[in-house]
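Sat 14:20. Reprocessing the chain from the morning session after the first attempt stalled halfway. Input below, unchanged.
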Amino acid sequence: MPNIEELNEVIATRPDYADAYFNRAVLYTQERRYEEALADYAKVIELNPTDTGAYNNRGNLYIFFNRAEEAISDFNAAIALNEVDPDAYYNRAILFTEMGRLDEALADYDTAIEKNFQDPAVHFNRAMVLLRQGDWENALDDLATTIKLRPDHADSYVARANVYTDLRKYQEALDDYSLAIRIRPNFFIAHFNRANLLYGLGYLEEALKDYTKVLEINPKEVNAWVSRGNLLDDLERYDEALADYSQAIELQPNGADARFNRAIVLKKLERYDEALEDYSTIVEQNPSEAEAYNNRGNLLCDLGREEEALADYEQAIINRPDYAEGYINRAIVLKALGRIGEAREDYQRAISINPDLRGVMEV
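Finished this time. Tokens:
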């Protein structure tokens, strides 16, 4: 294909040559000069109103600019001009999916597949819509077809592994995550999801390797720092867990999970002042948080600061009126302070919310 300068010369001498505008629009798009590309596609359609490629490409640009109705209009025009061409159906299906019009998207994917069964992208995207609708069986069929048509499509293995995980077919899920990683060794989400599954199944050392690989691939992935910190905590490697939580906090200072979990580990290490500081930071950042108030209350209680603990349990219950653990913890402290009637009321409230707490204390 000629470059833009050469196409400019062609258009200067042949201003009615539609192909030159089309090719220049393609190059403009590659260079992210989208407004100029739109203008050229409009010129193509003016010169050749039956050019379905121009309608399709302009429709895709309209999607980029969030001009959905104009995109739909262009795809409709392309379909009206050539009902057997799958591209417009496929493009319109993508747009319908983004708009949440899933039934219409499925109908277009069905038609696109009828026109061209051999396109793996259409099967994969239809599978994604089916998953959103909870139709796992048909989604799995589409993912299997995608893999048959394109055995190196790592995303399909990951998507299928996710479904297998939900279906508790854990070995099949692990196999698919591993296949995806074999195809794409630095596939972040495959390593991360496999790590989560291995962790859940109790294969801690194997999960640790995957979390570490995730962080090699993307050192700024907060969830991986937190997850690896949780795993290291389970392994009683507390100093390493603290380091991971601290890294997550550095990357996302307002992230509650890392700070909350760090506070728990700090308490295990009897670094109480630091744990209190973390809990206090959480409730300052998110005053509606209940569990942080409850945990800070527990720590204050352990330190013999019962009145402060009661204030925290009170706030936890205000934030979450059905928080059974808040009631039971407050009941325990109230009983220790000799306020038996109040303790009995909190205990009854706790077991009415969660009967499993019956027998935790005597009042």
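The CA atoms of residues 166 and 173 lie 9 Å apart.
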